[in-house]
């Protein structure tokens, strides 16, 4: 604020209560509104005695709230007034918009409950709740928040639906890096080189290199409690490297128990616990009870799988607020009805949005339908029944064990020995081949005579090596 003439002195000026002179007394108590007051110093007082201003220290002194004259006063002396100046260099209340950065001699220290020197921690702003006894790293001491034993934190608050940001910039781009929390969908987003690279959805799903779900979009998708999706374009999807020695590369667990693994030994890679399997389906798409190890035959009818294909377009914004669109093709399994054909278009609700989807057929050339073997010494044994597959709504697909080790269902009362070759008995069970010559109808060899399970009809399963 500008002034004409001399800038006024600012202080906490107070006029003391009237003092009555006592004959032969030099010391008097200073009060304002009947309350004792203590001056800043003897030099912060104006004292008038008998109409004459007194000289500080020479004519009077002060100690606490006591004013003492150099000599005792006598009857007839009059103490005209005592004015307390306060500290004329201090401001009681600062006027709005009166202090600028240029008037600050040093950085500002913000503290609570204790004093703080400018050089305590770091070279910038220091917010101290309590003394931690720690020191700030020189590369990150421009803003220090310090606390003691209790937890401390930093909050960024706004109204619901808005986003909050921390930007990292340089002389070429003011937000080339960014951390963002979006209250619209409660997602956490991390940006590098002016683009979003990582997103954490409200349910904990983590995206790296992509922002939406879908195998058709390159990047990583980690779903808590569910599957992990990794998609690459024109490159290896996953590289595994074990250093120093041979051993397990990948271990497979079910219900916390190891069921098999892929290992490496020199230049040999092996799948231990291996059973080679295939998809199949009954010709009428039914789902009857089939016992594990039941012998199956192939049919001259292929398994058909159909999908609904449609494009999903997502829109995000770059750092300048411009829309960035990304389109990928979704494929959803679909059971073809009698009235539908390949190429038909139907409306499909995907995650709450209707899309025009086209019915397509998967390009599968190797999976045929099967039946429980009803031909004695059948040459077209596919393998043995493993389990019904779950997850493909509308399709009753099952898994056929065809190569590797598995169990085979042997007919009741059959005498078996290790090394025996097996053929179809024509009723879903296997029988021992009459000789040891491998034939087109031979599909397995008994590895152990241990009966894993005996069924109600007397048939039983034993470990075998499959060679369908």
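Sequence proposed for the structure above (468 residues):
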């Amino acid at each position: 604020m500008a002034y004409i003439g001399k800038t006024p002195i600012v202080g906490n000026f107070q006029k003391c209560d009237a003092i009555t002179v006592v004959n032969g007394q030099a010391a008097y108590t200073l009060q304002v509104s009947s309350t004792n007051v203590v001056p800043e110093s003897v030099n912060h007082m104006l004292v008038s005695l008998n109409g004459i201003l007194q000289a500080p220290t020479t004519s009077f002194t002060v100690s606490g709230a006591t004013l003492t004259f150099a000599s005792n006063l006598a009857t007839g002396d009059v103490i005209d007034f005592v004015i307390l100046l306060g500290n004329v260099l201090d401001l009681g209340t600062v006027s709005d918009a009166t202090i600028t950065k240029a008037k600050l001699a040093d950085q500002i220290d913000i503290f609570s409950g204790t004093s703080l020197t400018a050089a305590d921690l770091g070279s910038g702003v220091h917010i101290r709740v309590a003394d931690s006894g720690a020191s700030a790293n020189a590369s990150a001491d421009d803003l220090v928040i310090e606390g003691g034993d209790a937890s401390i934190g930093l909050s960024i608050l706004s109204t619901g639906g808005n986003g909050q940001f921390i930007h990292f910039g340089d002389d070429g781009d003011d937000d080339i890096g960014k951390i963002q929390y979006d209250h619209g969908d409660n997602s956490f987003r991390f940006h590098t080189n002016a683009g979003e690279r990582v997103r954490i959805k409200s349910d904990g799903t983590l995206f790296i290199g992509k922002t939406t779900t879908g195998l058709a979009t390159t990047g990583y998708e980690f779903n808590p409690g569910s599957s992990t999706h990794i998609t690459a374009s024109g490159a290896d999807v996953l590289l595994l490297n074990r250093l120093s020695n041979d051993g397990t590369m990948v271990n497979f667990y079910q219900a916390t128990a190891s069921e098999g693994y892929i290992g490496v030994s020199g230049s040999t890679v092996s799948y231990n616990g291996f059973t080679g399997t295939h998809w199949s389906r009954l010709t009428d798409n039914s789902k009857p009870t089939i016992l594990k190890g039941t012998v199956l035959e192939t049919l001259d009818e292929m398994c058909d799988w159909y999908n609904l294909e449609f494009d999903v377009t997502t829109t995000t914004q770059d750092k300048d607020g411009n829309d960035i669109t990304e389109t990928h093709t979704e494929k959803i399994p679909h059971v073809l009805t009698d009235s539908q054909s390949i190429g038909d278009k139907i409306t499909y609700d995907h995650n709450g949005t209707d899309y025009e989807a086209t019915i397509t057929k998967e390009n599968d050339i190797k999976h045929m339908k099967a039946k429980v073997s009803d031909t004695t010494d059948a040459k077209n044994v596919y393998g043995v029944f493993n389990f019904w597959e779950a997850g493909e709504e509308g399709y009753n697909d099952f898994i056929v064990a065809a190569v590797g080790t598995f169990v085979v269902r042997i007919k009741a009362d059959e005498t078996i020995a290790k090394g025996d070759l097996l053929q179809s008995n024509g009723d879903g069970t296997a029988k021992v081949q009459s000789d040891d010559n491998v034939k087109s109808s031979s599909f397995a060899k008994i590895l152990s005579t241990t009966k894993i399970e005996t069924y109600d009809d007397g048939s039983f399963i034993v470990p075998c090596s499959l060679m369908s």
